[in-house]
Amino acid sequence: MTGAKGMAPPAPDCLVIGIGNPGRGDDDAGRAVARWLRGQVAPDCRIVEHDGEAASLFATFEGAATVCLIDACVSGAPAGTVRRFDAVTAPLPQGAFGLSTHRLGLAEAIELARALGQLPDRCVVYAIEGLSFRPGAQLSPPVTAAVPLAGRQVLAELLRILPRHATTSTR
Predict the structure, then answer these.
(1) Under a CB-based contact definition with an 8 Å cutoff, are residues 97 and 73 in contact?
(2) Which of 7, 21, 26, 98 could pair with 143 in a Cys bridge, judged by C-beta atoms 3.0 to 4.6 Å apart?
């Protein structure tokens, strides 16, 4: 989509990206949080669901000043555990964010942006520990329970750093 005179629309200064594959159980956690957040952030804070492929993901958040990414992880923590990482201050933990079906995933997209000097000013990752990633499976009960918890944490983050981007309603 382009704006006036054929130019691309400006990047939003606030972007929330839920990452995952809806057909692989807990891998859908990030997208489930994005769906939970719809209607709870100001209209100028864009919410996107994404499959996590690194090059496309990098292009999605390119130019945004603040990006909150939500994804499933496997780190050995109990299923449903929600963790927060500041991707500006340090790389994501090795191995916690497995490679996507496209070979490169979230950690690689962030490091690509960092290497190119295009990492957003604020880039925060919320990770939900997954339990089951079977094809065709639904979210596991611990991850289903973690979706609103992660959503509230993202809303609190937005209220803290960009108060105009979060609404007052909470679920």
Answers:
(1) yes
(2) 26
| Half-sphere exposure for 81 (CA within 13 Å, toward CB) | 12
Q: What is the pTM of this model?
A: 0.85
Both tokens of 136, joined, read: 């065709």
Nearest CA among 55, 43, 44, 60 for reference residue 123: 60
User: How far is residue 25's CA from residue 2's CA, in Å, rounded to a whole number?
Assistant: 35
Instruction: Answer whether 61's CB lies under 8 Å from 17's CB.
Output: yes
Question: Which tens digits make up the pLDDT trace of 70-127?
Answer: 999 988 899 999 999 999 999 888 766 654 444 567 888 888 888 988 899 999 999 9
Sheet holding 82-86, edge to edge: 45-50, 14-19, 66-73, 122-129, 82-86
Burial group, residue 44, by CB count within 10 angstroms (0-12, 13-18, 19+): exposed
